[in-house]
Amino acid sequence: PFQCSQCDKKFFENSHLTRHMVIHTGHKPYQCNQCEKAFLRKGGLVNHLRIHTGVKPFKCDQCDKNFYRNEHLVEHMRIHTGEKPYQCSHCGKTFSQNSHLQGHVRIHTGIKPYKCSQCDEEFSHKKDLTNHMRFHTADKTYPCSYCDKVFLHNKNLISHTKIHTRETPYQCSHCDKAFSEKGLLKRHMKIHTGVKPFQCNQCDKAFSRNDHLTGHMRIHTGERPYECTQCGKSFSQ
């Protein structure tokens, strides 16, 4: 066998040893020709290139979602199956994705790994840091010329502006409805196709939209997040 000179790993083929040595040298031979990213493995480059080409070869057979990588599809499928294989060792709560478990565990540990580069604030979740950064990047936003809304990304401004211009380029082929965004048309099409990919894992109900499933689940959980400010009575929807 071929022995690694840096660690105790052994390989039957020299080519496998050569590939392994990259871990120690840090050399990343597979360079993206679209950006500055480089990868240890050719497979990593192939997966990355889909970000530039937009190719999403892994399709969910329960809904119209597509993914760049197979592992992302596997994680997504748990929405439909209700599988939650990742369990918190502190409280027993279960999650469909490992990243969700890791984020949850920080509630127990108090770890805040996301640090603001502009001030001394720290956050448990990346999305909280992203929201916080808006305070520092207020001069790099995209304001709507029709109302007082402001957006961090130009594509979001373009999408929002269609509300004011009443531009609806996405026409339903089954009826006379038209929409400002492709995603809204896709959601509407489920009315005609009858597809209900969002299945309740507590009963046999199924829904065409995930937000409808979320609302329905409160029947089972008893959750009532909407509270009246006048009398304190709470509601599920």
From TrEMBL:
One of its GO terms (molecular function) is zinc ion binding. Residues 2-29, 30-57, 58-85, 86-113, 114-141, 142-169, 170-197, 198-225, 226-237 form the C2H2-type domain. It comes from the Eukaryota. It is found in: Nucleus. GO terms for biological process: regulation of transcription by RNA polymerase II. Keywords: DNA-binding, Metal-binding, Nucleus, Repeat, Transcription, Transcription regulation, Zinc, Zinc-finger. Coiled coil: none annotated. GO terms for cellular component: nucleus. Belongs to the krueppel C2H2-type zinc-finger protein family. May be involved in transcriptional regulation. This is C2H2-type domain-containing protein. It comes from Meganyctiphanes norvegica (Northern krill).
